[in-house]
Amino acid sequence: MSIAKNYIYNVVYQLLILILPLITVPYVSRILGSNGVGINAYTNSIVQYFVLAGTIGISLYGNRTIAYVRDKKDELSKTFWGIFILKLITTALAYIAFLVFIFIIKSKYTSIYFIQSLAILSATLDISWFFMGIEDFKKTVTRNFIVKMIGVVCIFIFVKNKSDLNKYVLILCISDLIGQGIMWMYMKSYINKIQLTFNDINKHFIPAVQLFIPQIAIQIYVVLDKTMVGMFSTPSEVGFYDNSQKIVKMTLAVVTSMGTVMLPRVTNTFAKGDLKKVKEYLVKSFEFSSYLAIPMMFGMIGIANEFVPWFFGNDFLKCSSLIIIISPIIVAIAWSNVLGMQIMLPVGKVKEFTISVTVGAVVNFIINLFLIKKYASLGASVASVIAEFAVTLVQFYLMREYIAIKSMFNNIWKYFLASGIMLLFLRIIGNYMKTSIKTTVVQVVVGMLTYFVLLVMLKSNVNNYIINIVKRKFLKKTI
Predict the structure, then answer these.
(1) Where are the transmembrane segments (predicted)?
(2) What's the mean pLDDT in 461-468?
């Protein structure tokens, strides 16, 4: 399947994960309030540590390893079963550790913790890494759409007041669990039943752990901030921070999907020794990511004040400021996704990748310690932005000998210029129109048109490529 089709499928997949729950966010925010939303986010952040410990670095490792052997069915089968059984063992140990944790802390959120722990079982059954490794994204998208839609319907039916927090968490967890289970229905056509030796399982442990180390670092500044806000502040502050992150990360899904698609492709290309093609992928991917990420950053800043009140409700007005502060991570993560997921990991620069994300984790933790106690969710937002840019800068430095930095940035100024002008239009519209869905829609439409037209005038490579694709598709239909 082509990179373009895989990218589209993976964008849809990532957006489904985020958008379908976001359909319920305005409703849930009003029903459960900032306190209920915060409790869910806080307890989930704790459980995610056990998910991380159970899956070690298997998702990244599995994706990359399957890409190496996808053309040999027997080897593919042996690799899949070896990786899966290893994950089965490690997630079982993680769940035992979770039970010990619950027994020790005796939290008032114990019932919610137990419901959230279904995420550990979901992680056990998760084989999305296999389908990403063979570059088959269509099945994952279809499965997610059906299951997530059922979950959305259940939320509107069963969650009616603040006391239904447990039901809300259960619906989210069960939906994910069922979705992971359904993927197993497709496996017969891809793999064979084989006999495994202990070595077939054990040989994956050390390589997976090597990718587990950067995963720990990444988790520190993805999840630890919510944990720290919950520890040093209030559940409501966690709710503000969590909802703001959801909105920003919804846009990120469109950008970072390229990394998931390109990792197996670059890995396979690198395995064939075609280094020239690998560098070609890097330059094109970096420009495409910038083409999307930069206007999304300016766009989120431009619409935040008018978007938050009607979407989240008056209980979450603080999210406006948080979204504006957090938005720059869209660009930072887009660039680090290209460098890390599309170059460092595929070509085996795991050590360099680990160093970069560890720097980000340390920076995030230290700044959180200073800012969260005084500024709560605002402090966590600032820390996240600084940490993400620290990761990106370190990756540029560590890979400076392998990449042509100057050529990568040749056209980036065009996207900043067009986005800056677009932001001016968004603020003019926001200042003259009242807060409403209509205002947000007008801002988004005008913003997209302004950005696209300006890039036509600036002769953007990506813009021209998209226009040519549309022209070819149109000509085919008219002939």
Answers:
(1) 7-29, 41-62, 83-105, 111-134, 141-159, 165-184, 205-224, 247-267, 288-308, 320-341, 353-372, 378-399, 411-429, 441-458
(2) 75
Cα-Cα-Cα-Cα dihedral sign, residues 95, 98, 103, 109: negative
Handedness of CA 400, 401, 402, 406 (dihedral sign): positive
Q: Are 172 and 151 in contact (CB under 8 A)?
A: yes
69-76: long-range contacts, CB 8 A cutoff, minimum separation 24: 70/133, 70/134, 70/135, 70/264, 70/268, 73/190, 73/191, 73/192, 74/192, 74/194, 76/134, 76/190, 76/191
Name which residue leads in pLDDT, 234 or 476: 234
pLDDT digits (tens, 9 = 90+) for 409-453: 888 999 999 999 999 999 999 999 988 899 999 999 999 999 999
Q: What angle do CA 372, 24, 245 make, to 5 degrees?
A: 25
d(CA 175, CA 10): 19
Tokens representing 269 are 């290309």
Closest by CA to 447, choosing from 291, 296, 253, is 296
Q: What percent of the chain has pLDDT over 70?
A: 85
Asked if residues 351 and 316 have their Cβ atoms less than 8 Å apart, the reply is no
Look at residues 215, 208, 146, 151 and name the one whose alpha carbon lies nearest to residue 183.
146
41-45, 278-282, 328-332, 471-475: which range is least confident on average?
471-475
Angle at 41 between CA 38 and CA 43, to 5 degrees: 105
Provide the whole-model pTM.
Answer: 0.75
Q: Quick one: CA torsion of 289, 294, 297, 300, rounded to 10 degrees? A: -100
